[in-house]
Amino acid sequence: MGFWSRTFTWWNGATWGTGLFTRLHGKEVGRDDAGNVYFEGKKNPATRWVIYNGSNDGSRVPPDWQAWLKGTIDGLPDTSLPDRRRFEQPPQVNPTGTMAAFRPDGSLSKNQLRPASTGDYQAWTPD
């Protein structure tokens, strides 16, 4: 990541200001499988934040860490939450704006025809 990008943009990682604040006032408490790093305040442990590994997108925070960030659970997710059940699927990031997003038939990017209407629709025409 370039100097200017790191200095002035927040959407593709932590800025220098956030990094400096984190070094001065934060204590690392854990990391998730995606590489996001979680911190709590040195003076006030109820203050919690995340430094994303890549783009800043809240859907990239797993539900267990989301609960910790919001204060729903006091302890860290590894010790405060039960193990994941067999039927539970791993969380997924929001695919909006990517090629994995849902595209209905008739979408310009899907190259398919829209299904014919059912006949219960009549277009409005001005009088």
Automatic annotation (TrEMBL):
InterPro entries documented for this protein: NDUFA12
Spans annotated as Disordered: 79-127
Ranges that cross the membrane: none
Superkingdom classification of source: Bacteria
NCBIfam families to which the protein is assigned, alphabetical: PRK08183.1 (NF006040)
Protein name (Swiss-Prot/TrEMBL): NADH:ubiquinone oxidoreductase subunit NDUFA12
Source organism: Sphingomonas daechungensis
